[in-house]
Amino acid sequence: MIKIVTDSTCDLPPEVFKQYDITVMPMRIHFGKETFLDGVTISKEEFYRRLRSAPQLPTTSQPSAGDFSQALKPLVEAGHEVVGIFISGELSGTCASAYAACELLPDASITVLDSRTTSAGLGWMVWEAARMAEAGADVAAVRARVEEMIDKMRVYFVVDTLEYLQKGGRIGGAKALLGTMLSIKPLLMIHGGRVEPLEQVRTRRKALARMIELMAQEMRGYSEVHAAILHARVEDEARAVAEQVRAAIPCTEFFICEIGPTLGTHAGPGVIGLAAYGN
């Protein structure tokens, strides 16, 4: 049987991870000399509480090849094939660590896929792969489907400030927006695996409305649309945006998720995003 592995930047309803027995590799969060495992030794609530009072921004690091080897070895020894789907290689070295772990387990059937995205965009790919695995699909079919979804996936988001992306080194092409008027709310996207500017809008409300409008245009013509709202510590606003999304885009499946410590480190509190793909 195929077992699906991902990392802790993958956002899905918690019950999905449990239902499909998905292995989640935790990222590391560093507050000064203290190190925590994302979702294991630090919760979202504790992370954002610490973030508010931290004298300097935390940093993150990916699981090591040894971490991967230790987690994958029992799966392999149980006779499973492994498909790992991870955060974009442009945003993290997680895929590189997974590839290195494959060399430590040379006789194992391990397929590593770079999602070219993260958060709920990655989540949709992991969920689809898990459903296919449960239905008895082989590795080639799962890989082909994920690669198809990589091309279709759209992730747009609005941040309160570019400070976190800049200091975390994940700002990508959005660097061109630094120094713009403080009244501008950048609408960003993940494109080619990197954070890129999409548009500049003058208010947060208008930026969120434009995000929905652009996604509705992208999803037009699909008979099935799978969408998700992602946010950091703005649940009420996220639910209001979700209502607008569902009014503008007929969704076959939909969920709301809060991003965890790793992505929260780089996007900062207040981010709201929309991830969607169509069939």
Fraction of residues in H or I helices? 40-55%
CATH class of the largest domain: Alpha Beta
Q: Could you state the order of secondary-structure elements as H and E?
A: EHEEEHEHEHEHHEHEEHEHEHE
Widest sheet, order of strands: 10-9-8-13-11-12
Distance between the termini: 26 Å
Put simply, the count of helices is 10
Largest pleated sheet: 6 strands, mixed
Structural class: alpha/beta
Strand content: 25-35%
Shape label: globular
Radius of gyration (Å): 18 Å
Rounded mean pLDDT score: 92
How many domains? The number is 2
CATH fold topology of the largest domain: Hypothetical Protein Tm841, Chain: A,domain 3
Q: So, CATH architecture of the largest domain?
A: 2-Layer Sandwich
Which spans have pLDDT < 50 for at least 5 consecutive residues? 168-181
Number of strands: 13
Give a topology summary.
Blueprint: E1 2-7, H1 14-19, E2 23-25, E3 28-31, E4 34-37, H2 44-53, E5 59-61, H3 65-77, E6 81-86, H4 94-104, E7 110-114, H5 119-134, H6 139-152, E8 154-158, H7 163-167, E9 185-191, E10 194-201, H8 204-219, E11 225-231, H9 235-248, E12 253-258, H10 261-267, E13 272-278
Parallel strand pairs: 1-2, 1-6, 6-7, 11-12
Antiparallel strand pairs: 3-4, 3-5, 8-9, 8-13, 9-10, 11-13
Helix pairs in contact: 3-4, 5-6, 8-9
Outline:
The chain is α/β, with parallel strands linked by helices. The chain has helices spanning 14-19, 44-53, 65-77, 94-104, 119-134, 139-152, 163-167, 204-219, 235-248, 261-267; strands at 2-7, 23-25, 28-31, 34-37, 59-61, 81-86, 110-114, 154-158, 185-191, 194-201, 225-231, 253-258, 272-278.
